[in-house]
Every structure is written in structure tokens, then in C-alpha cells.
Amino acid sequence: MSFQNPVFIPGPTNMPEVLRKAIDMPTLDHRSPLFAEILHPALEGVRKVLKTETAKVFIFPASGTGGWETALTNTLSPGDKVLAARNGMFSQRWIDMCRRHGLEVEVVEARWGEGIPAARYEEILTADKGHSIKAVLATHNETATGVRSDIAAVRRAMDRAKHPALLFVDGVSSIASMDFRMDEWGVDIAVTGSQKGFMLPAGLAILGFSGKAMRAGEMAALPRTFFDIRDMEKSYAANGYPYTPAVGLMNGLKLSTQMLLSEGLDNVFARHHRIAEGVRRAVDAWGLKLCAISPDLFSDTVSAIRTPDGFNATDVVSHAAKKYGVAFGTGLGEVAGKVFRIGHLGSLTDVLTLSGIATAEMVMADLGLPIRLGSGVAAAQDYYRNESKSKKAAA
Amino acid sequence: MSFQNPVFIPGPTNMPEVLRKAIDMPTLDHRSPLFAEILHPALEGVRKVLKTETAKVFIFPASGTGGWETALTNTLSPGDKVLAARNGMFSQRWIDMCRRHGLEVEVVEARWGEGIPAARYEEILTADKGHSIKAVLATHNETATGVRSDIAAVRRAMDRAKHPALLFVDGVSSIASMDFRMDEWGVDIAVTGSQKGFMLPAGLAILGFSGKAMRAGEMAALPRTFFDIRDMEKSYAANGYPYTPAVGLMNGLKLSTQMLLSEGLDNVFARHHRIAEGVRRAVDAWGLKLCAISPDLFSDTVSAIRTPDGFNATDVVSHAAKKYGVAFGTGLGEVAGKVFRIGHLGSLTDVLTLSGIATAEMVMADLGLPIRLGSGVAAAQDYYRNESKSKKAAA
Amino acid sequence: MSFQNPVFIPGPTNMPEVLRKAIDMPTLDHRSPLFAEILHPALEGVRKVLKTETAKVFIFPASGTGGWETALTNTLSPGDKVLAARNGMFSQRWIDMCRRHGLEVEVVEARWGEGIPAARYEEILTADKGHSIKAVLATHNETATGVRSDIAAVRRAMDRAKHPALLFVDGVSSIASMDFRMDEWGVDIAVTGSQKGFMLPAGLAILGFSGKAMRAGEMAALPRTFFDIRDMEKSYAANGYPYTPAVGLMNGLKLSTQMLLSEGLDNVFARHHRIAEGVRRAVDAWGLKLCAISPDLFSDTVSAIRTPDGFNATDVVSHAAKKYGVAFGTGLGEVAGKVFRIGHLGSLTDVLTLSGIATAEMVMADLGLPIRLGSGVAAAQDYYRNESKSKKAAA
Amino acid sequence: MSFQNPVFIPGPTNMPEVLRKAIDMPTLDHRSPLFAEILHPALEGVRKVLKTETAKVFIFPASGTGGWETALTNTLSPGDKVLAARNGMFSQRWIDMCRRHGLEVEVVEARWGEGIPAARYEEILTADKGHSIKAVLATHNETATGVRSDIAAVRRAMDRAKHPALLFVDGVSSIASMDFRMDEWGVDIAVTGSQKGFMLPAGLAILGFSGKAMRAGEMAALPRTFFDIRDMEKSYAANGYPYTPAVGLMNGLKLSTQMLLSEGLDNVFARHHRIAEGVRRAVDAWGLKLCAISPDLFSDTVSAIRTPDGFNATDVVSHAAKKYGVAFGTGLGEVAGKVFRIGHLGSLTDVLTLSGIATAEMVMADLGLPIRLGSGVAAAQDYYRNESKSKKAAA
Questions:
Q1: How far apart are CA C220 and CA C217, in angstroms?
Q2: Minimal Cα–Cα distance from B268 to chain A, Å?
Q3: Domain with D27 in it: what CATH number?
Q4: N or C: which end of chain D has fewer CB within 10 A?
Q5: Gyration radius of chain D's alpha carbons
Q6: With an 8 Å Cβ cutoff, are C31 and B9 in contact?
């Protein structure tokens, strides 16, 4: 018999009932005025979650990868140069995409577990007197390593270098879960998806474009149709969509942003921090280390946990799935086999998180790691019960 | 923001997705042949779960209480005498119902936490030479105290007394979760509901009537219409229902019995036992005692946990709900304030159960009880991981 | 492949999406404060729909039949006398129930198709100088014949006879669809169910009790437990329920009353009248007659349509189901084979009603009745398009 | 109050309950083996629906437009030449996309309402001795005009010209509703979406690639990442996906293909033909003409209906939505204001189609067109009742 445990993957997240019901709509004519009542509140809600007053929001029926492609193809031309750091699987994939689209990439290598080296960005940008670099790429939260980089520092580096490049930020696994300030940080394109902080199924690429990014589009020569933001812009103005939209998902996004804003973004971020910190206390109690090399880099949406040398971390994930019906994340790329990941974003409670921690303990014990059962749980319990003084966790 | 933790009340239980979807049907004409395709498999599925070859099954749009009333009014007449033990809130309510329907009740008092005193039953029945006692009432699982009584022993007592009374068993919180053998134990009426082992919402009273119980109905003078099994019997034979049925719930029941039988009843019972035993290991690790006075009485569907003198056990329940968004059960009647209850029946996994145990620990610690965080969790983890050698828990 | 046509039975009705979603809740602890947030708004919403300031509302997990039993057993004693008219299957069933509960019934026979003969009631009540009649029963809308009786006239008859009997009204297929004025008409007990005007699945018996009916309960000697309103009253006061409630359905009822009251009861009634009148125009265009013998009796929730002599009206229903996948209602009791019924209550639009009318035409043509295809549809279209000047039908 | 009428737009279609429930899944780890149990049956089901033994199937989280882009970017290089006919809005959009991707398009103009001029294709291909044309584009069903073109004739034209170009077919509004024979017709790329014949929400682009098309991809220089079929191919082989898949929609697609294949494709096509023919009978009874200029071109998924000169056909759509809550399709591009469209594909019954026809009649009468109410309905009824001899419509 199959019963449903929560998932502990770094997205898609567990979904609240109300969002599932908002998505599961009967068919609605997307060319009728009813669609406008979904489209505009969804766009407006995303805008507020991005903390921007002026950016234009675009929603595509695609994934976060499609969102990246939207960013590149709507602003750049073949042969254009971009600056990017490689500190994990998702930043690596973005670099790969740039190359497949004929862009030149200046890659800054970083250890997997480190953040974006803003100082190195500054050097390179300062040296780029001719402003051949058109865009700076930054992965806000490296889902593969559980590392949150400092986007404000990247912006400061660009400003100190007085460099006019655009700043593109992959916020797929940070936006709506951790603080993100599009305007304050001078982000030109923010990219995210429906299946992380918005607690929806995969299926929407969500982007914000600054005025500067919109203007860059006028010159962009990379071919695009499906991902063309100008078609979107024109259609939105007429309460429509350039092709058939994913109406149910957009209705879910409308409600999701209402829920997030009504809880208050600061409360949402605090909730993610509290839940994440409980996981980290457990990891510490187990005597293990995170992949992220220092506390300022710890992600509040996913923890990548290093296992001892000689142990295959991927076994944790397959054993947990097979024996306990619980999904964790494997290590990817360079850290494959070295880490397993606990996703702790989206729709989750302290209480459910404890079940994930408890499962990880059983799994590691089953696999022969010297973990004392209950040790991580106790550390997390101690933290949660002191942090949840009021009814935060319950509501 | 409200996210959904599992409930740990002794019913209604957590519900599997597939059952919720089976219930949530569009309207179907209950006078059409489509209804027969729901009715008969549901009746037949229940029959198998009751482990009876010959009993007639009846399904009413009501609750377990309605099921009890069905048992009484279809077999007895005003002034008839019944024998009943009072060892908890639910047996007490049944006694109360008998009296409200003008029956005379010979009550055997038992301590709350004890099972049905079969020996005392035997004495009384043996003494009842004139067979004035028409029915013997037995609560299989006292939901209030977490006590499972021995129905086979009650039957043996009746047989040894050579007494022809009917045997009515309240299996509301046992059937479909713990072994129940209608034919083997000579049960004349079995009563249960949809919201426990069947993992459905409340709304169906489910009964099995032996041939002897059916025959008793011919003389029964207690008034009844809504709960008349003869109307049901006649209607079922014509693929119909005497009034408007709860079609969706019955469709859920059809699927629920298919799931239970396909898992195998023995596996279902073993799963409940394993999950329950983990809870009991935790209780033991906490240094607390169950309300049930001896291991042979321990219920596999609900544990009533005694808290220290001077402590109000009800605070556990209200604090857990308010601070952690988790529902436990309070003590009822004589054990109000003395116990809190953890329900562990229906749709539940080892993993989710650990979150309930972990929550109880935090709550008790918050309220000042000398509980070591993680201690109960560790005891349960140790048990679960050794008992779930294969993919039992996961599937 | 099975696709879903709307049903045209006189209940359960087609259900709005939002109500289905409100019912399909995850398990909630019915002993927690969360339940009060469902219970009280549901009770209060029903009170407003009944148009009463003072009556107490009770909601049982049962059907309308259970509602009738609640009315009888909470106010009467064995041997009490009641006055009732028999003008259809449902009034006949109520009479039958009275007798099975040991009540004496003074039956006023009426032709099936007529309303309650208020003048005859007046004669009998006037003649009952000793006030041996304790309750007057009235079926507001005879679902079997499509006849709406005049409850105000029944009240006037009682008043003119200066008779103190209680007035019980079966409003199962009228309340929430046609005007019902509990206080103004002096109704002592109003009985209805969830599956008609409230547009929910079957599973709730819904009652209003006047102060006088509540007082009568103090003397009522008919046995009852499941249907005891005093247990309900006590539990409601403590934000609880005497046994496990059907929480999801009650949540649906809460939302249903909000929808009805927000649309405005007068608009709800007008909508039902408009849709019903379209069906009647179609019947007229077909050259057929309703079972109801005069326009003042025409029900706005169901039309029973007489077919020519020698034709088995039940064939319409089975043929429609088999060939077209559409459910109509058969004739019951005395009018079995003589009428078929089109239910037009609850969640329905002009547009969907036309599909039912069109189907009936095809069916009758298939079965050899001299019906001109499109004739009834045209009559209904003509009516609907003129009555739906604004966006009434759409919304 | 808002109740749900069926939609009569040419997609997204009305959705069967079971598909909505299959989509509405709790979160599943798409990197676990559970995903393979969805992915492979969905791919295999699509393959059978496309009637191909050898093509590779790809499913993208996108729309039909994304499907077109997939076809172009995976096979062609900038400057490549393609041949395309413009006979409606969707063929025009495809031409536009080609140009935006730097392809040269040889456009064959056709009147909107005509099919693809295969003879003209043959002339052009025959003249293209140097085989500079790399691909021939064909819109199987022009959704804007309700015209189904003859793809076999296009193939014959190519064969007679002995031209090696690839054949790309837009089957968005034909596949799974009208006969489509990928292998027999020598189609190299078939493009469709989830929201038409598959009866799902929008959100999936679905493609079949012949071996020849796969090989063409090795040389294709158009940039692509999100839509790269080689990434898909590699991931599928490892039971995975190159990025986060739309798991719920794919689960719906798996079930949808099972439903279609279990009904039998020929039965599915016959059902669409029957429903469409009923609509055409109605149009004829109204004295109106279809946009499609001859019966061999009539689409079985959508009918574009010409209104009299001087009448704005778009008013039909807005009036129907506002007054009756029913969605029809407007005319697009060159036929804007000249036609309105009735979509009759996907999940629909004869009975529901009659409600659409009846609504169109009321709307046209409201707007002053000389339509006799019931005339179109009668024509369709007459057809349906004779074509639905058995229980075809019901099931």
C-alpha cells in the first residue's frame, strides 16, 4: 500500500492543498476576459515577491532552464561575451547553455561549496575596459551545493568596476524562499520557476526584466520565438498571451503570491531560515559537515551534506526511497557520491522536517555510518521548540 | 500560512490521495445501474474484511453511533435485557444508548484500562437460566483507553454458559486495522464506520449481521425506519437503496476494501502493529505508562498515555495543536486530564509516525515534563529500522 | 470512453466545482477549535436560508429520511396522532414512517398531482376539539409529482382551526431552491438535505426547530440517540458534536450557504423559476402535460411529465441513460410508468438545461412518440433568451 | 453565481474528470524510478497515437509553439530554406517563426478556407533541382479556418518530385482527434500539444521525430538548449529528464493515451466525426456556410462559420460569453470578424454539443441574424439520434 510521505528534494516542493486546488481548474477560455483576472494578479504578485517597482514580469509555460534561455536570447547576440562563475552544477549548466547559443563565456572557477567570488568578478570587469562583457551571470543559490551567494556583493563589484554589463541572476531555488531584492541589488534579469518557493508543480518559467534589460532586447540578435518577451509584452497589454497559456498553473501562481505576501515575505524567509537551521543543527549533531564551506553561504532552501570518505552518499538517497519511501537529493556533478541533499523549502513544517531528519538518521545507521539515532532529531527539536514560541509553525 | 501536518487522532485518520479522489465523484444517478457497480463491490469488500462467509453487510449514511443504533433497533424490543461491560467512554456510551431505547442493561464494571472481563460475563450468563439476556455487548477496541479486548474469550464464555444471546461487537476502531474474525468468533453483529481502518471521512456506518441476527429482527419491536436493515436488504436486492445513498463515500469504501485486500489483511494488521509498537517503544523510553494495564490489551490503533499525577494531560493536546499544528487525542470521561492519546491507525507511515512522536516530545518538554528530546524517537527509529527490513514501510 | 453529461434527476444535483473542493478536505481534528469555524457558519447560513430568526438548526450525518425521523422522534410519543396528506411517494413514505414509529396517522388522500388540501386540513383540525392531533405534516414539494404545495395556506388552516399542533414541513426538494419562510409560515420543524438546493452530495440531514418544537421535545417519549437534538444542542454549545461529524460535507454546506446568500435568495429562486419555466415551455411545445394539475402547483425544482396512455414512461429514463448517457427520473409509486421526471434544481444553467430538453426530444422520438425534434428546445430558447437579458445565466 | 458550462473553443478542450485527477498529483521525485513509470508509458502511448513504429517521441514542458520551435531548431541551420503554405493564422505564425529564426521561407499563398495546394508544392519541389529546400511545412488542421489538409497528398507531391526535404507536420489540432499516420505518410516531424485531442491542460509540446529527422539534427546549427532533443534522448535513456519535468501533466498524458487506445483510435476518430457532422448539419440548417470551401476539407475538430456580410462575427463570441457563459472561438487574422468558431474536439458528447448549438442559435437570434430557434438543434438531433444507434454517445 502506498502512502504519501513528504518529499525532501530541493524542488519541486511539497504543495499546499489550496494551491493544488487552484491549479486543478476546469477549462477556461484564455481569450476571454476571465484570463485577465488571472494573468495580471499573477504578474503583479510576482513583481512584489521580486521586490521591484519597475521591472516587467514574464511568465512562460516552461521550466527554469527555459527561463535562462529567455534571459540570454532576449538580450544578447551571437559572439557576445558574458562573465560567469562555476561553483556547482546549475551554474555549470548555465555556462554550457551560453556556449550552445554561441556566446563567449569568461568562466571564473570556484570550488564547489564556495560562493561567487565577487572580488574576482571585480578584477575582470575592471580589466574589461572595452566593455566587451555584456552580461554578468550569478547563481543566487546553487541548488547542487546548498550555497547562497551574495548578489549585493556582485552588484558592488560591478559598480566599483563602473561596468555597464547587465546582471542576470538565477534565483530558481532562492526566490520566494530567501530574501531577494531585484531593485536594491540592481538585478537586470531575475529568473525563477514555479516549483520551488512558489510551491507549485514545475511548468512555469518566471522572469523579471529591468528597464535596462528591456532596452537591451532591441539589439539582441539571438533567434527566439517561443521565449520572446516582446510578444509576451504585447499580448499582456491586450489581456492575452501569444499562444496557449498554462492557465491552471498561472491561477496557482496568483494564489501562491497572495499567500506569500499575506504571510509577509519576511515571515516566509524567517520560516525557511528556522526550518533550515534545524536541519543544520541535526547535521552538526551527526558530526557531519555541509558542502557549503562557511555559515554565511548556508542556503535556507537546501543543505548538501558531506558523507565520510569512502562512503557513497548516493546510497543514502536510494536506500531512503526504497526502504522508507522518502525522497532526498543526490549529489550532482563534481560532488556526486560525496553529498546527499535535504531540500527544506516551500510547503513544509518543523514537524514534517523532523520526520525527514529522523529518516536520514535511520538510513545512515542502516548503511553503517556511526550516527546515533535521535541525535539529530534532538538537536533540531531543541532548536525548533525554542524558536517556535508562538504558533508560527502551526497557524 | 497553513500547511498540513498528519493528524494523530484515533480517527478520522489521514486519508490516502486515491481514496479522496474516489470519493470526490461527479453526481451519479443512484437509481441507475451505475450504482450497482459501486454498491455490490463495497458490500462484498466489507464482507471479506469482516472475515465472514455468511453475514449480510449493511452500509448506512451515518456514523458509528448510528451503527450501534442499527444493531439494537433491528434485533431487540423495549424491556429486553442486554449484558455490557463499562471499561471506557465508548462502552459507556453504548450502555447509555441502550437505556435511552428502553432496554435493561446488566452492567459489568471494569477499571478503565482493563479489557472485557470474560469470566464475569460467563458467571452472569451461566446464572441467567431463563435466558432473559438477549444480547451481549462487547467493545473490541476501547478507543478511549487504547484497550483491545479478547472477543474470542467472550464467545468462549457464552459457549461455556450455553447461552443463546446474540453477540454484538463494536469494532469501530479495530476493524480493518486489527484482526477481526466475525465467523470464527461467532459475532452476530459487527459495527464499524468509514473513518477509521477504512481511511475514509466519517459518514458511513458499516455493519455485518449474522443469520441469527437477521432472524432476531423478525421479532424486534424497537421502532426504526432510517436504520431498518430490512429496507436495505430489499433495496440491495434490486440494486438500489431505500433513500439517497452517499454515493461518493461508498465508492471510496469500494476502493478502500480493494486496497486492504490487495495489501492482504495480515499485512495490514502487521503494519498497524509495527507502527503501534514504535509508539509504545517511545512511551517506554519516556518513562511513561499506557492506560492499558497489560501488553495483551495494547491496542494497535490508539495508545492512551498516562501523564504524571498533577499534570493535566489535556494540555499536551491543546499545546500541540496551538504551537505545532498537530492533533492528538485528549482523555475522555474518567481518564480526562490523565491521559493523552496518539492515534496510529489508517493511512500512516513509520516516517510520519516519527514526526508525531517527535512532536509529543517537544510538547512535553515545553510543558515541563522531564522528557529527554529524541529519546522516544530513537527508540522508535531503532524498532522501525529493524522491522522494516524490506520495503514494507515505503512501497 | 465515458464523459460526463449533467444529470437531470431531482437530486442529488450537479455540483459546482468550488463545493466539491470545499468538501474534499484533508482530515481535520473535529475536537479542535478548527471545527467550530465550520460548524457555526454552517448552522448560521442554514438559519438564514430557512428565513428564521429564532429556530435552532441541526445538522446530522444522514439523509432527508433521517431528517424526518429526527422530527418525529424528538417531539412525539408512541400513540400520538398526526395529520398528513398523501399526494405522492414522499408524503406516503413519511406516513409509513409515522406508523412504523407507533404513531397514529390521520391520512388525507389527494390525487397524485394535487397539492395539500388545506381546506380539508382545516375541517379535520376544527373537528379535533380535544387536540389529539399533535403534529401536522406537510410536504412542501412532492418530488415524485413535481407539485409544490402552499404551506402558508396550511398555516392559515391551522390558525383558523385555532389548533395548537406542530407544523412539520418536508422541504427536502424545495429549500434553497424555492421560497421557504420558516418564521412567516409558522413552521415548527423544517426538514431538508444536503443534496438538493444546497448542491452537495447526499449525507447531511438539515433541520430547523422552532422554540415550540424544542419545548415539545421535553415530553417526547419516542426513543432516539443518534437523532437526538438535545445531544446536538449541548455539543454545539461546546463547539463540538456528539459523535464524529461529516466535516467535509459541513464545510461544503458552510460555503454553499455563503454562495446562496451572496447570490441573494430571491435571485436563487428566480433562477430556478426561469430554468423550470423553460422546461415547462418545452413540455407544452411537445403537446404533453405535467403531472401537477394546475400552474399554481408547478414545482420549480422538478417537472413530472405525463406520457401518452399505453406508453411506458420509464423507457424514457432507461433509454436516455443507455443511449445518451443522460439521467432523468422515473415515475414512482402510483405514477410509475406514467410520468418521467426532469430535475432542474441546484447547479444548472439555461444552456445545460437545453441539452437535457434536447436529449428528452431525441429519446421520445427514438421511442416512437410524435415529438418534433427541436420543438421543445425552441420554446425554451425563446423563453431563456428573453428572460436572460443581462448576464444572469452566465456570471 | 458561476456554474460551469462546457467550452466550445478549439482547445484547450473540456477535460475528463479522470485526467484532471491524474494530473493533480502530490509531488513525486522526478529523479526516482517512479518517474520512469510515467515517462515511458507516456512516450509509448504517444508513439501509438502517432501511428509510427520507429519515430522517437519527445515531450517538452511547453506549448505547441514550442513544439514548432523544437522542429526547426533541431534540424535546420540559419539560412536554410523551407517551403510552406499560408492558408490560415497558424500556418502564418509558423512562417513567421521560421523567419525569426533566420530561415528563408518559400511561401505558397492560398485562400483562407483552402487546404494546402499539394500540386503547387509539387511544382516548386520539382523545380528545386539543387534541393535547396530542406523542409516542407504542412499544417494538418488549420485551427483558424477549420480546414483539414491532405498530408498524404503532400507526401505524394514530394515523392513525385523526388525531393529529399524533410516533412514537418503541425498536427496540434488534429492528432488524437482525426486520423494521423506518421509512418504511412512519411512524416518526419509531427508536432502537437497536450490541450487538444489529448484532453489535458496546455503545458506539453509533444513531438515525433523520424530517423531521418534525427539524423538531420546532427548538422543543425540553429542554437537551442531548452528544446534540444538530444538532451531529451540521453535523459530518457537514463529514465530521467534534462531539467524538471511537468510530472503531473505527463501522468495525465500517460492515462490519456491509455484511454484513447483503449477506446480504439478509429472509434475516437468516428466520435469526432459524428459530433462534428452534427454541428455541420446545424450550420446548414441555419443557411450559413463554413469557411472551409469544400466538404473534403471540413475539419472534425473545429468549424469556422461565416456570418453574413456586414455582421461582426466576433460579436457572437463576446455575446455568448457575456450573456450565456459559453465560450466560442473568434475569427483570427484575415477572417477576423467574418467567422466564429465552434470547437468540437476532445472530451465532448452529442448531448453537450447540442447545448453549444442551441446557444449559438440564441446568440445569433439575439444579435438579429435570421436564425430560426431550434432549427440547427433539430438537424443535429436528427443526425445524432440516427448515428448513435447503440450506446456510443453514452458509455
A1: 5
A2: 9
A3: 3.40.640.10
A4: C
A5: 21
A6: yes
ipTM above 0.90, yes or no: yes
Q: Kindly state whether residues C101 and C21 are assigned to the same domain.
A: yes
Q: C302-306 and C289-290: which strand pairing?
A: antiparallel
> Nearest-CA residue of chain B relative to C14?
B27
Q: Does D377 touch chain C (CB under 8 A)?
A: yes
Chains touching B by CB (3 or more pairs below 8 Å): A, C, D
Closest residue, chain A, to B381 (C-alpha)? A362
Q: What is the Cα–Cα distance from D124 to D131, expressed in whole angstroms?
A: 11
Cβ–Cβ below 8 Å for C11 and B244: yes
Do residues C103 and C190 share a domain? yes
* Cβ-Cβ contacts under 8 Å, A3 against chain B: 14, 16, 347-349, 352
HEC readout, chain B:
CCCCCCCCCCCCCCCCHHHHHHHCCCCCCCCCHHHHHHHHHHHHHHHHHCCCCCCEEEEECCCHHHHHHHHHHCCCCCCCEEEEEECCHHHHHHHHHHHHCCCEEEEEECCECECCCHHHHHHHHHHCCCCCEEEEEEECEECCCCEECCHHHHHHHHHHCCCCCEEEEECCCCECCECCCCCCCCCCEEEEECCCCCCCCCCCEEEEECHHHHHHCCCCCCCCCCCCHHHHHHHHHCCCCCCCCCHHHHHHHHHHHHHHHHHCHHHHHHHHHHHHHHHHHHHHHCCCEECCCCHHHECCCEEEEECCCCCCCHHHHHHHHHHHCCCCEECCHHHCCCEEEEECCCCCCHHHHHHHHHHHHHHHHHCCCCCCCCHHHHHHHHHHHHHCCCCCCCC
What letter represents residue A268's amino acid?
Answer: V
Output the pLDDT for position D3: 62
Do B355 and A359 lie within an 8 Å CB cutoff? no
Chain D: touching chains (3 or more CB pairs < 8 Å)? A, B, C
The residue of chain B nearest to residue A355, with distances taken between CA atoms, is B355
User: Is residue B57's pLDDT more than 90?
Assistant: yes
Is A261's Cβ below 8 Å from some Cβ in D?
no
Write down which residue in B262, B285, B318 finishes a domain.
B262
Which residue of C lies nearest to D377 if distances are taken between CA atoms?
C374
pLDDT on residue B132: 98
pLDDT the model gives residue A3: 62
Annotated binding residue D341 = yes
Clarify whether residues D129 and D254 are in a common domain. Answer: yes
Our CA-based measurement puts residue D156 at a distance from the nearest CA of chain A, in whole angstroms, of: 31
Contacts of B354 in chain A (CB under 8 A): 354-355, 358-359, 377
Residue in the block written with cell 390558525: C159
Burial B182-192 (b: 16+ CB within 10 A, else e): beebbbbbbbb
CA gap D171, D178 in Å, rounded: 9
Q: Which domain holds residue B294?
A: 265-387
| Count: domains in chain B | 2
Domain boundary among B201, B229, B262: B262
For A94-150, what is each residue's pLDDT tens digit? Answer: 999 999 999 999 999 999 999 999 999 999 999 999 999 999 999 999 999 999 999
**Is residue B388 predicted with pLDDT exceeding 90?**
no
Give the per-residue pLDDT at D1: 39
Give partners of C (≥3 CB pairs < 8 A).
A, B, D
Query: pLDDT (tens digit, 9 = 90+) per residue, B252-311?
Result: 999 999 999 999 999 999 999 999 999 999 999 999 999 999 999 999 999 999 999 999
> For residue B21, what is the nearest residue in chain D, using CA coordinates?
D21
* Pair (C358, C279) in one structural domain: yes
- In this prediction, what percent of chain A has a pLDDT beyond 70? 97
Domain contains B46: yes
CA distance B197 to B148: 15
CB contact under 8 A, D378 and C381: no
